[in-house]
Task: inverse folding
């Protein structure tokens, strides 16, 4: 049997007109080379094809975290989105 992993994601729903995105970010204590991308599937969904501009989504999150770190003297490091 597999090991159960516990992790904390901070989530916020962002509505942009007719669509919306659930932004979920997991922070880490140490720098990572690549941010882990996690896609949650709905109950009957198969395949999990991402239907939006993932690179833009990642860049917007990075810029937002960088801005928050600068404004609040923080040191948040993104581990997963």
Result:
């Amino acid at each position: 049997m597999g090991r159960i992993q516990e992790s904390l994601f901070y989530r916020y729903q962002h509505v942009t007109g007719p669509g919306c995105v659930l932004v979920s970010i997991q922070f880490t204590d140490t720098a990572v080379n690549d941010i882990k991308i996690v896609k949650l599937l709905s109950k009957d969904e198969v395949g999990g094809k991402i239907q939006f501009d993932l690179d833009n989504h990642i860049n917007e999150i990075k810029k937002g975290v960088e801005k928050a770190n600068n404004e609040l003297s923080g040191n948040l490091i993104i581990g997963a989105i």
